[in-house]
């Protein structure tokens, strides 16, 4: 049960486009309906042996999300400090 809960929470964190891509890869069509319900249904329909692969995919999407830079952008027209 822990894997299913983990996957469901991860599916809620990824973007709508990423969720749609996972859904389309699995079912061959784009999802229609409430995102929370779709995530719950998706998790419930996965076999135990498929959960690890789904979790790995969702983790890769979450860890490869674009990160905001904390450094100030450098203006190439100004002399370096």
Q: What are the main properties of this structure?
A:
about 80 residues; about 65% helix; 4 helices; mainly alpha; elongated; single chain
Task: Give a structural overview.
The chain has 81 residues and is mostly helical. It has one domain (2-63). The protein is built from 4 helices and no strands. The chain has helices at 2-13, 16-27, 35-45, 48-63. 7% of the residues are buried.
Q: What would the principal axes of the Cα set say about the shape?
A: elongated
State the domain count.
1
Mean pLDDT value: 82
Question: Over all CA atoms, what is the radius of gyration?
Answer: 18 Å
| CA(first)-CA(last) distance | 55 Å
Class derived from helix and strand content: mainly alpha
Instruction: Enumerate how many helices there are, as a single number.
Output: 4
- Unreliable stretches (pLDDT < 50, length at least 5) are none
Query: How much β-strand is present in the residues?
Result: under 5%
β-strand number: 0
**What is the helix/strand order?**
HHHH
- Main sheet, how many strands, which sense, barrel? none
